[in-house]
Write a structure and sequence with these properties.
The complex is a heterodimer of chains A (116) and B (116). By secondary structure, chain A is mainly beta. Chain A has no helices and twelve strands. In chain A, a hairpin with a 2-residue loop joins strand 7 and strand 8. Chain B contains no helices and eleven strands. Chain B starts with a strand and ends with a strand. The chains are: A mainly beta (116), B mainly beta (116). At the A-B interface, strand 6, strand 10 and strand 11 of A face strand 4, strand 5 and strand 9 of B.
Chain lengths: 116, 116
Amino acid sequence: AQTVTQSQPEMSVQEAETVTLSCTYDTSESDYYLFWYKQPPSRQMILVIRQEAYKQQNATENRFSVNFQKAAKSFSLKISDSQLGDAAMYFCAYRNLLGGSEKLVFGKGTKLTVNP
Amino acid sequence: GAGVSQTPSNKVTEKGKYVELRCDPISGHTALYWYRQSLGQGPEFLIYFQGTGAADDSGLPNDRFFAVRPEGSVSTLKIQRTERGDSAVYLCASSLEGSSYNSPLHFGNGTRLTVT
């Protein structure tokens, strides 16, 4: 079974600085998707960024970028120029492409605090 | 509606009671998902609907849990003989086509269920 591990329960960053959140996953598959979701206190999960495993180029979305290391099964999220509104829980998620599964497997999350 | 709507926002019930949680997806979204998020954990997959049918119910923990989507729109998650361990936030999500990458999931704000 696939698992997703986020080893940092909490992280903090100063406003305007850069922070990196870690994520590793365990799978024997070669085709899959990876995601980072943000969950503010409203509880709504918001998609931040996504990566297809067969693409070597790291995904970027404005201030958010990932460092995808397929061999190491690592998928870290870098937030540049951190803003107060970035404070939230961040979840890494995995989706296998084989077998038609639509299931996302989530990590336990990292709580990000942004200090003014 | 503009987003995924879940009602009620909070539900408190006594052990042994029956509860129903409602999800109203984004209009036109054929795929609908239920996840359960226990305290301090990431969301865990429960069930996935494509149209009216449950395409994958492998995440339902036992036969006390059941979900329906009779007209391919609104879905109801039903929990019989509730137990204190069922206390969690129940998240609903919908997507346009059922592919988590090409048509990403849109989550609701969840229902926080507390079983006393």
